[in-house]
Predict the structure of 3-hydroxyisobutyrate dehydrogenase.
Amino acid sequence: MKVGFIGLGNMGGPMAANLAREGHEVTGFDLAAPMPEGVRKAASAAETAQGADVVITMLPNGAILRAVAAEVIPAMAPGAALCDCSTVDVESARAVAEQAAAAGLGALDAPVSGGVGGATNGTLTFMVGGSAEAFDKVKPLFDIMGQKAVHCGDAGAGQAAKICNNMILGVTMIATCEAFALADKLGLDRQKMFDVVSTSSGYSWTMNAYCPAPGVGPASPADNDYKPGFAAELMLKDLRLSQQAAEAADADTPMGQLAAALYTQFVETEDGRGMDFSAMLPRFEKRHR
Ligand code: NAD
């Protein structure tokens, strides 16, 4: 396929490289990042769209996505598909999908989980909103960039799945970290805490697969001085998106709200910026009731 790829940063770069390696004709555009191997550099976002079967975007936020989409949609050929893999607000995803549909294009919101490792190894999970037709068109590309693509529903459903998942992740990480900090103060050995909780009803992905305590459980950013991994500020971005969505949908999400407040404090006034989101554990260790 002819693929336009806009946003070749930490995630988009390796995703585009994987498509090129599998023989797709990839043209890329980024304001700053270098072109990955096998990707032809375009002079503008609109140029990547010319003659493309699929245009993929992997950008920082919804405002940038809207601006790029406004430039790219008029340059795309009817019947082509615009596939946004960034994590953005549900409203922006739906607005872009509407504009694309009005121009006779397919549109998907297809945020990912799996991080930079998943992007590099082609093992991302895609959660996808949009028409079945557009999903089927882009599916061969999802199969190269990832291990799984779930068609979640209409436009915005992919972003909805992503922010709900990451709201659970943020809340669970905080719960796991505060429990470890309490266990420490109660004199409970961290390994024993892990042995019990990881096989009891308190188990979770944050405990079992991404344990925030160094030297306990499988290797995780905690074992690497809390270097990300998944940075605290990205967790905060996703928690804020969940709260923006909850407000728009009139949903009561007190735990998500508290998690957003704690990560705001951690990133903005404590030492969380640039740390993995599991560095909430040393944060709790330093604090008193
Ligand atoms: P990044 O900052 O490394 O990459 C974003 C790229 O977009 C940059 O290279 C930037 O130059 C480019 N860009 C910005 N504005 C542009 C414009 N107008 N035109 C062209 N290029 C432009 O970010 P990332 O880590 O690759 O994340 C991208 C998206 O993926 C975000 O929405 C993020 O939330 C999401 N995401 C990231 C991770 C992760 O672990 N990094 C995991 C899942 C999802």
Remarks:
- Residues 50 and 88 are 25 Å apart (CA to CA).
- The mean pLDDT is 97.
- The radius of gyration is 20 Å.
- The longest strand covers residues 146-153.
